[in-house]
Write a structure and sequence with these properties.
alpha/beta; Rossmann fold; 2 domains; seven-stranded parallel β-sheet; two-stranded antiparallel sheet; 19 helices; 12% strand; globular
């Protein structure tokens, strides 16, 4: 999520109140885990260039999908955030949050003025949770907010990018290391390297938990306080549980997989390739490894998610989410009944998924310095241009040929090969490989230095032990240092120099000739 500061202005221009606008031209963009005020959708401009009005939402970056859905609803409608009576009581936080009264992006939004939603990663789950609450209600008799009373179908279309509909295997694989990994992600992607940036741009939106950043508090201090209070794998009302396989299964069982008259599209990204290792061509194991060009922090997690211990169907991934989970929600009683590969005919009430190869989890939504230099974002830009046109066709009622011609014969796969084989991508691969080699050399150097220090420490300990043994024998009277003989038993002590000295002195005392080698050993 590398962030140019000018993106702040972009957010303020895009997220303006829309009072009189055709709802079919309104698109709400929802960020994923650890997205927020510093984040944006740089390709959203491809929609605005085609007549759409963009709403860039900013919900809790580490909050649960339930809480984020409530915040999203309040931001669009312009109300006080209501997390629900029963939910708040069960979760142990306040019922109400930020007051957006008079600041709603599209206050007239309802079942008669349905709008479009696009979400990246966890943002796709958040959109689906909002849809479930609007369609099914909260199930709590004490909730009177229209959000929780089953108001009906308010969504024209739902588009998800790299979303963990069935959760991510990474959560379970990292276990207790998940929280530390998330911290590294926010620092690595967001570029939060100084407190000024953190102070100005990042808001965890945890007021309902009673946690706010104190004036002058550093990022590390705030994070440690957050981690010691509520941020843990055991808290089921925060993001780590929501994006886990168990959390996704729980959400999927709250409502239907799809609803009538809503169009669903998912883009499943992948940046790993299959590998096989064999011993004597008898014992073999298969796994997935990161492709060249994947963001360096994700290369490790991609390998972890693709290891041979993971179920075969869950190995292909984009560094954060396994590919199968991105296609559509299946971990519910409905299974895969409403899940199909997109064939150019975008029908409602079923998930239509499109494969997006050569993209890791972040490349589909953001550019970074390398991408800017090598024009790597051209293929991602094409994806957004095409989907904007697809939604235009949907609004016009032209579904049979909704951009089928741009995706080849079957209209199933976004063809990025022409970009991946370009000179720009080859340059990117070379940079990535050079970086990997450099990091490898650093690791080797560190190992050699550690080995050298260890060898020196062992030698010093050996010399100390030898001297102590020699002193102990001398104190026992076995060794006499005033010209008397030294018994042969001492020759076996560990210090070579002392052994040579003892052997030579014994020979001299016995009148034997001392060989040149013995003298040399001294």
């Amino acid at each position: 999520m590398g962030f140019p500061l000018m993106r702040i202005a972009l957010l303020s221009m895009m997220a303006t109140v829309i009072t009189a606008q055709n709802p079919e031209n309104v698109v709400v963009w929802v960020h994923g885990l650890f997205g927020g005020q510093f984040d944006g959708f740089p390709y959203a401009s491809e929609f605005s260039n085609r007549g759409f009005h963009n709403i860039i939402a900013s919900v809790g970056p580490v909050s649960s999908n339930w809480d984020r859905a409530c915040e999203l609803y309040a931001q669009i409608k312009g109300t006080v955030v209501d997390y629900g009576v029963c939910h708040s009581r069960d979760a142990g936080h306040s019922r109400f949050g930020t007051d957006y009264t008079g600041q709603g992006f599209y206050p007239q939004w309802d079942a008669s003025q349905r709008i479009h939603f696009v979400g990246h990663s966890m943002g796709g789950q958040t959109i689906r949770m909002l849809e479930i609450l609007l369609q099914e209600g909260s199930g709590c008799p004490e909730d009177t907010n229209p959000l929780f009373t089953g108001s009906g179908n308010w969504m024209r279309s739902v588009t998800t990018l790299s979303s963990p509909h069935d959760g991510s295997t990474l959560v379970g694989l990292l276990g207790d290391g998940l929280i530390g990994f998330l911290k590294n992600l926010i620092v690595g992607f967001a570029g939060i390297t100084d407190e000024t940036i953190f102070e100005a741009l990042y808001n965890f939106k945890l007021d309902h938990w009673g946690i706010t950043k104190q004036p002058g508090e550093s990022f590390n201090s705030f994070w440690n306080r957050l981690e010691s209070s509520i941020l843990s794998n055991d808290n089921t009302d925060l993001a780590p549980f929501s994006v886990s396989e168990d959390g996704a299964r729980k959400q999927n069982n709250l409502g239907r997989q799809t609803y009538p008259n809503t169009h669903y599209m998912s883009f499943a990204t992948e940046r790993t390739r299959p590998e096989r290792t064999c011993i004597f061509w008898v014992f073999c194991w298969d796994y997935e490894v990161a492709e060249n060009g994947m963001f360096f922090l994700l290369r490790v997690t991609a390998g972890l998610m693709g290891n041979s211990e993971v179920a075969v169907e869950k190995r292909k991934n984009d560094g954060v989410v396994h590919w199968e989970s991105m296609k559509c929600p299946t971990s519910s009683s409905q299974g895969k009944d409403n899940c199909r590969r997109y064939n150019g005919n975008w029908q409602p009430n079923q998930w239509n998924w499109i494969d997006v190869p050569y993209f890791d989890h972040m490349q589909v939504v953001t550019t970074n310095s390398w991408n800017d230099i090598f024009n790597y974002d051209r293929s991602a830009k094409k994806l957004y241009v095409d989907h904007a046109q697809r939604i235009i066709s949907l609004n016009n009622g032209n579904l049979a040929n909704s951009f089928k011609e741009d995706y080849g014969l079957a209209g199933q796969v976004v063809d990025m090969s022409e970009y991946d084989q370009s000179s720009e991508i080859n340059k990117w691969h070379k940079v990535s490989m050079a970086s990997s080699v450099f990091m490898g050399l650093l690791v080797v150097g560190a190992v050699l230095l550690s080995a050298r220090k260890l060898r020196g420490r062992l030698r010093k300990e050996q010399e100390t032990d030898s001297q102590e043994e020699f002193n102990e024998l001398e104190m026992q009277g076995t060794v006499e240092s005033r010209g008397e003989s030294i018994p042969s038993s001492i020759i076996g002590i560990r210090d070579p120099a002392v052994s040579a000295f003892a052997s030579t002195k014994k020979s001299m005392d016995e009148g034997s000739e001392v060989s040149p080698k013995s003298m040399y050993d001294l």
